[in-house]
Amino acid sequence: MVVGAEEACLLTAAEAREWRYRGEGSMNLVMAYIGDKEGLQGKVLRLRKAPIDSDESFKCASIEESYAFLQRQQFSKLDGSCLPRGLLVLVSRDFLASVKSSCHGLRPAHRLTRDLDLTARSGWLLPDLVSVPKELLVGSKVFLGIEIKPKCGTLPDRKLLSSATAIKAQVSRYRMMQYEKLRTGKITSISSYDPLDLFSGDLLRMQTAVRNMMQDPQNVFRVWVCSGPSSAIRHLGSEEELREVLGSPGLSRSWESEEDFCRLFAKVVQHSKVLVRIRELQALDALDIENIYHMHRCLANPDEYSEADARSSAPAKLPPVGDWDRLIEEYLIAHSAKDCSVIFTLTMIDKQEHDSSSIMSSAKSHGFELVDESESCAVLYRFGVAQIDLDIKLRTKIPEYMSQDSRILEGYLEHNADKC
């Protein structure tokens, strides 16, 4: 069966038992394949969610629309080698119902307001960025899969903002949002993680960022351990579990120290240069939502809100109206990049393995790179931009983004009035 230009299979209820819950974002649920079909091994399936409460305001592009958006926009702006393309597969309603049932009791409580969309026709089949090829799982070797959600690593230009919102040019959006999440009960403490540290390129600041993510992961840091096939991949839910794995025989003893691990992982992230590429996408938000909102409002309802209205209400001097469509589109692409995740798969190899041409040849054929760590060992890693929540952002949600921006700012100012 064909979906678009890609060949795809139809997944039915009988095959649902071959898929295991891996994780989810706000809009999508991810299942990992654990069966023996060669074409599906090492794959995950991304499935769209829908609100359980039909009254919830829910504006979300379909899987098909998100897939088309990624091919059209993101691949032209982000190196396709780190952004798996995948393909669409048809899914039956019975398959989705069986998957939904198999996930019962495995999903985090804060995600239960949305469930699988049983009316969806397609799922998105993608490489499992955590899965490790069998030929690399030699002896007691352990691989770690680390997902980071770096968030926004840019600040708006002060000239684009009003005097009342100028603080946005100094404090990262993630740091501001912490106070809104605290007020609404989504978190119980303020994280020290700052995306500006991670995106800085400075190794010491990046190490600090990794340490802060580990200490208070929220939704920006997750770790899996892989010592076998997909069915053996285990999510580590606490710092204690991570410490235990870092001290296992399958990893170098230099990883036993949490601080050593933070330094090493920061070095891997720096070496990959993936955050440089993501930041370039985020920088497409050239005008900030405070100005984009007024441009969108004018284009969407020109009879009710004129160009003159937009220009008089926006805090910055707006460009020619002929550029507005393009700038709004670039803002939405940037907004999408601020939600993306990156998954790294890494392990330590000793000098003997490093010198083994067969091991290194196999590793490189599967996309792994080498980061020298010491005379006795090195880090073998690969990475990919995950697409759990890398979705098309709809123009119709721009008023919602503006309201959210205002709430985030208000929450921050309420707790930090003396700093502004």
UniProtKB/TrEMBL annotation:
It comes from the Eukaryota. Transmembrane segments: none annotated. Pfam families: Ins_P5_2-kin. Its EC number is 2.7.1.158. Coiled coil: none annotated. One of its GO terms (cellular component) is nucleus. It catalyses: 1D-myo-inositol 1,3,4,5,6-pentakisphosphate + ATP = 1D-myo-inositol hexakisphosphate + ADP + H(+). One of its GO terms (biological process) is inositol phosphate biosynthetic process. Keywords: ATP-binding, Kinase, Nucleotide-binding, Transferase. Phosphorylates Ins(1,3,4,5,6)P5 at position 2 to form Ins(1,2,3,4,5,6)P6 (InsP6 or phytate). This is Inositol-pentakisphosphate 2-kinase. The lineage of its organism: Eukaryota, Cryptophyceae, Pyrenomonadales, Geminigeraceae, Guillardia.
